[in-house]
Each structure stands twice: as structure tokens, then as C-alpha cells.
Amino acid sequence: MLELDHIAVTATTLDEGADWVHRCLGAVPGPGGQHPHFGTHNRLLGLEDGLYLEVIAIDPDAAPLGYARWFDLDHFSGAPCVGNWICRTDDMEGALAALPDIGAPVALERGDLRWRMAVPRDGQLPFDECHPAIIQWDSAHHPAASLLASGVALRRLVICHPEADALRRRLAGHLSDQRVVFEPGLATIRAEFDTPAGLRVLG
């Protein structure tokens, strides 16, 4: 079984992504950290209901890599956007058997956090990055537990894709979350939030 874990905003630079989130939601992402294995870094915003928002970008100080970065960041350009959504499991092997073609698990760590993420060899998730990435936390606590409350809550996560029905059927029986909806259209992800200032949208 999968549970919605967090939402990733991809950006050309971390500052640009964090500024965009601040302008859209009225909340400032806090510190995050670096991911040396993939040459990226992030900032995090705590959401209600144990979720969080991650702003992620290529770390300009990272050494060159001989393999693809996660979240297809090697091919990202343009304005910040909701680039990915991540679901957690407590059975990575079972999830990969049920949902093939989403990559192999990569063991990662940052500070006292330990986790495994299924990452495709080319860094590109199925359904034009609209398929969720799968994560298994192997540390004692979830990162959202240490983030400051922002007063921002996810209302809906709208996954748009020309084959939205196929993606919905693929995930049926694995993910049950009324906030996640699938709509036909161009491959995009839109996140709708309730904030202290009302409804706000990241797209």
C-alpha cells in the first residue's frame, strides 16, 4: 500500500524555487540539505497532515556525475513547477514488483535521515514524470515531524496526463487518497492548497 508522502517543486535554482513557493503560498520554505549522490539540494516546507513540500534543484557546487539525476533534473529548464509527487511504502520490494518500470532502489542519507528511493536509470519516471516516485523511510522519524507548521494544507493534487485513466488504473489498489485526482490533459501536476489567505495553487 502507498501513502502520499511529499510533493516536489523543481527549479533551476533553489532560491528561485523557494521564492516562487513563497509568492504563491505566502509561506517560506525552511532549510533542507544536500544529496551528494544525485548532486542536488533542497528546502522544505511543512504542510498539514504529516505532508511536506520539497523545493529541489541541481546543486551548483556538486561534483559532475556519471549517471542521471533523479526527478529528470538533468533535462529541467524554465520556471519552477510542481515536477513530481512521492509516495511512501513500508515494502519497497513489493511496491516495485507491483509497479514495474519505476527504477531500482537507491539508498540515500542526509543527517540522521535514511531512505531508499526507486529511481529509473535515465532519471525519468513513467507517464512523463506524472507517475509517483516511491520512497521507503528507513530512519526512526519522518522529516515532516521536524518541520515548523506553516498553516498550509493540501486540498487536491491533480495529475494531468493524456493517459490519465491508465495511470489511475495502474495505481488503483495501491493508493487510496481522495486528495489525489487524475484528469486527461497535457502532462502536468497541479497542487491546490488551503492557506491562511485562502486557496492557492502551484502548477
Rg estimate, integer Å: 16 Å
Shape: globular
Q: What is the strand tally?
A: 12
Helix-strand pattern? EHEEEEHEEEEHEEE
Give the uncertain stretches in residue-range form.
none
Percentage beta strand: 35-45%
* Distance N to C terminus: 27 Å
Annotation field: number of helices: 3
Describe the biggest sheet?
Answer: 8 strands, mixed
- Content-based structural category: mainly beta
Q: Order of strands across the widest beta sheet? A: 2-3-4-1-5-8-7-6
Describe the structure.
The chain is mostly beta strands and 203 residues long. It has helices at 14-25, 92-98, 164-171, and strands at residues 3-10, 30-35, 40-46, 52-58, 81-88, 104-110, 113-119, 133-137, 153-160, 180-183, 188-195, 198-202. The strands form two sheets. It has an eight-stranded mixed sheet with strand order 2-3-4-1-5-8-7-6. Strands 10-9-11-12 form a four-stranded mixed sheet. Strand 6 (104-110) and strand 7 form a beta hairpin. The protein is globular. The mean pLDDT is 96.
Provide tags for this entry.
single chain, 203 residues, mainly beta, eight-stranded mixed beta sheet, four-stranded mixed beta sheet, 3 helices, 12 strands, 13% helix, 39% strand, globular
Brief account:
This protein has helices at 14-25, 92-98, 164-171, and strands spanning 3-10, 30-35, 40-46, 52-58, 81-88, 104-110, 113-119, 133-137, 153-160, 180-183, 188-195, 198-202. By secondary structure, the chain is mainly β.
